[in-house]
């Protein structure tokens, strides 16, 4: 490294991790020919009796490695990144394809290959890109209509993943992704995937998993989805009892200086004295005896002198803005967490592909440098014999993009156990959603929130929904009945004549008088006047509604959910369908599923629990409204009316309450 005085002033560029370029040879059982691959798959099944797996968007093979540890044999991988593809081809037999899965012709070919090889498990983490409203409209229409993708268009990769599953129909599907997939307002992609898989006949379970609960030494969350044939219930694995900290994971690795390179280029190694913890011993399994005293890839980027001084002054609790001004090379108001020293007694922050660009988020807990390739691999639970094709920067990127092998292991084992001891999964998301839809559509008992009820397949006007929410929230039933009749009869008050409008306003004020809701009534009348001049915004998106009328998010989302905008080409397909996660709805979901989503993880597990009850078909909008009605009238916090609930025969708490009814009658 040049001396500080020789560097250009304000040269803040980050050095890439340069170093030896590792070119890994293919696995001894690697194949390029499709016919040979099918012979290979048959041979593996016959000789090992192991279930076969394919890993799509496989990257370096973190998920593949975990599945093999669980007892599957991964015979097919696919990824469109060359370094990762060569890494996968080195570690796993069969085919490692560098094919473009956005091409429908390629998808059809791969799907046929997986089907003919009789693959038992399809796994993968398809990238899920955001969509325009127009794109969402068409996808929603096709999903809700039970249509499959036309073969004359390039498709999004998650849809390619589904298409391969639809062609091959494996016994099991394992998908992992980022939790953000479950956190957008509509949960659009996740609900679409669940709906399509259920249309194919799979039972589906999904959840957001903290990977540290399964032995990964990281604060890292992943969305896991499992789909099994024959309505088989997936039983989630139990948590690992012993949690693994940063020092448990990497404390045995020898000290090195930032930028140091061992002799021998890509085959160079660092002297290793042996493991100290159970996790470290596990990471050393599979290392050849000849390499027992060696650690490969224990290299990292050079350290600038000013960075070294900053690192030495830091603890794990030091913020970037706590550093002296001379060591703050970036704006503290923007990069307030630019540097992060790992806490050796806690979990690492999430290892991401960004580590290939700079390692400031991953400063070694004891040494004044960023972590090495091998340390990053350890924190992702890759064993020490697992190496990565390409230069160090490519290795870092592959590690950051990978699924921790530990997660593949525990989920793969849980899938095997669920298939071996098959239990009925009970009603599907579609079953429950359709049940709620039918109840909301036909039941005469719906009365808590009558403005959610569609009459003869016609929703109420948006204004009447907004007015009802603004005026009648937590109102007594007697008031709701009188005022709702008036609002329903005057669903578009701006179209009334002057005389009719006066009668409407006087009637509303008469009903509200002495109820403490007089100011609310004034606001509703003002909204009615405003709506007359803002019809486009009233019929527009949630954002337009919110900004134009100054409505709360809860009111806006309910209005959009209850009264969708209509497309002439695909009715109801272009309408927003937000997932509303209210306290009451979470209470219903918690009781129904027998969990605690109403008390913890409400924005992750809670949203998934609600989505699991409403689905994403042509039934889901009214199913969601039915869930809200249940929460407000029947599934009360105290003394729920279980005998009247449409879900009573499927609800975990409801079934217990119904079992107690004969006993209560006998007591009385």
Q: Any overview of this molecule?
A:
It is a single chain. It contains 25 helices and eleven strands. It is of the alpha/beta class and 668 residues long. Among the domains are: 34-235 and 409-420, 3-Layer(aba) Sandwich (Rossmann fold), CATH 3.40.50; 245-402, DNA Methylase, Chain A, domain 2. The model is unreliable at 1-14, 567-573 and 663-668 (pLDDT under 50). The active site is at 128. GO terms for molecular function: DNA (cytosine-5-)-methyltransferase activity; DNA binding.
CATH topology descriptor of the domain at 34-235 and 409-420: Rossmann fold
Give the strand order of the largest sheet, numbering strands 1, 2, ... along the chain. 3-2-1-4-5-8-6
Oligomerization: single chain
- Mean pLDDT, to the nearest integer, reads 89
Count of alpha and pi helical runs: 25
The CATH first-level class of the domain at 34-235 and 409-420 comes to Alpha Beta
Q: Superfamily at the CATH H level of the domain at 34-235 and 409-420?
A: Vaccinia Virus protein VP39
Look at the helices and sheets and give the structural class.
Answer: alpha/beta
The percent of residues in helical segments reads 40-55%
Shape: globular
Radius of gyration: 29 Å
CATH architecture of the domain at 34-235 and 409-420: 3-Layer(aba) Sandwich
Number of strands: 11
Low-confidence stretches: 1-14, 567-573, 663-668
- Biggest β-sheet description: 7 strands, mixed
For the termini, the CA-CA separation is 87 Å
Instruction: Indicate the proportion of strand residues.
Output: 5-15%
Pfam family, one: DNA_methylase
Family: Belongs to the class I-like SAM-binding methyltransferase superfamily. C5-methyltransferase family.
Active site: 128
Protein name: Cytosine-specific methyltransferase
